[in-house]
Amino acid sequence: MEYSWRKVLLLEILGFLLFDGLLCMAAGAVYRHDWVLTEKNYTRLCYTKPVLTVNGLFPGPELHVHKGDTVIINVVNQATYNITLHWHGLKQPRNPWSDGPEYVTQCPIQPGANFTYQLIFSDEEGTIWWHAHSDWSRATVHGAIMIYPKHGTSYPFKKPHGEVPIILGNWYNGDVMQIIEDALQSGGEPNQSNAHTINGLPGDLYKETYSCANPGTFEMIVKKGRRYLLRIINAGMNEEMFFKVAQHNLTVVGSDGAYIKPITTETIMIAPGQTMDAILTADQTPARYYMAVTVYASGNVPYDNTTGTAILTYKNYKKSSSPVMPSLPAHNDTDTADSFTKQFRSLESAEQVPKDYDLRIYTTITVSTLPCESGSTCLGPNGTRLSSSLNNQSFVNPSIDILEAYYKSIAEVYTTDFPSEPPHPFNYTGDDLPSSLLTATQGTKVTVLDYNTTVEVVFQGTNLNGPENHPMHLHGYSFYLLGSGYGNFNNVTDPASYNLVDPPLINTVSVPKNGWAAVRFRADNPGVWFMHCHFERHASWGMNTAFIVKNGSSVNESLIPPPPMPPC
Fold first, then answer.
1. What gap in Å lies between CA 364 and CA 470, rounded to an integer?
2. Backbone phi and psi for residue 483, each to the nearest 5 degrees, phi listed first
3. Residue limits of the Plastocyanin-like domain (predicted)?
4. 208 pLDDT tier (thresholds 50, 70, 90)
5. Are 433 and 426 in contact (CB under 8 A)?
6. CATH number of 25-155
7. Pairwise CA distance, residues 527 & 522, whole Å
8. The domain at 157-346 falls in which architecture?
9. Rg of the Cα trace of the chain?
10. Tens digits of per-residue pLDDT, 152-205?
11. Where along the chain do the CATH 2.60.40.420 domains lie?
12. Gap between the Cα atoms of 374 and 387, Å rounded
């Protein structure tokens, strides 16, 4: 459905009133919060610096809701940077206006301004999270969202005695905004973080490098015999992580806001953007045990090789000299990573898994290059500027957001010709590939989908320019992960191995280095929805695209009219 200017103006006037009316009909409770974005000094690793925070907190505020609730959050920007917020894993049915990626569904909230986000919870249950979606501000602007079962229902497992968010992140001694700005100007890799953190704190091991006072360690107190639900979130910027608790198994029961068949494991591998719910039973000798996080580095690219820690402390433990440290996998231990991720299955067989597709998008994922500006030398390969691309298209943010342009039929903001297959087929995972394949084309290309189209996306890694895993995230949807493998995807033989019975329902998939992953979703959520790599440097370089999903035939299959949006 296309909109005339007269209709657009009328709907904008009525939009916020209509949304309030929808709240009255909401099945769950409605909660309201006021969040203020400010800069506050924090000290880690002997460095004190101002960091962007929400309500002065790092990590930011937690949201606690039940399935089907609605949350209204008024965000006031009292900092010096533009900002947007994204609710990662929240489908926001018919409401892309509050999804958050800058210049995709909204223009940023400027300093001194405010914007009210309307969070519509639908079928999500478990753990998702929220984070800034502008520049690199999400390094400190993020927090957990805990979604409990609807009132009168229960978990599909025995109720735990306690629940604890475990947010894995990074600390940069430098200014994160300046770090990415410098990298984009030089054309090279951005600096790595100085520490990995658990709930904002780096842990004891950094005392060996930094001689100042204790750098800060998160401590979780437990009672022997009790069970605890760890809500684990990888809020890190550029690295997949191994997570382990010394001498304790973890039973993973959920991922990305949906339940899975239980997986009992010593080690978790979790990619940026992913969440996992894991049961920990305090069944060991009362003592102190380290939780530890370190990088899983699938490729030959720079990474922060340090180890962040927290401490699991039993009540009434006998004093000991130091906590017990887990034996962590090697940074390049792909066998451990694969043996864990290959076990994921939905808790129940899903009758709604699409058995076929209307449209297949086969897209390469590549760290590309762009020519350096005339007369200068950049720090990328052979003096070029590092870039990234999907199907050789490097995404460029427009000057106004795509959603507004679509809704108001504003021309020359985006084009609808994102290629559904690689424009220049080659041996994607082969060796000695020609350098001519490295150069990407820049643009703002999207794919337009009719309502209810069943889409299969096959992500294909390439062996160009430092191959590695890629955590690919889709806004507005969860998708079924049907299969993955190494090498080039074979469209004849590989679909025969798809799991069409109980594939995991997730929103972020780790595409293996020099391999592929196939996902499916039904386009039943109208609006504009971003798809991108959740390595922040790759997203900054252009490894992004978007889907425009048209309205269906009824009001309930159409966009909610917009509230007053931030100006561009």
1. 11
2. 180, 165
3. 38-150, 163-316, 418-552
4. confident
5. yes
6. 2.60.40.420
7. 13
8. Sandwich (2.60)
9. 23
10. 999 999 999 999 999 999 999 999 999 999 999 999 999 999 999 999 999 999
11. 25-155, 157-346, 359-557
12. 17
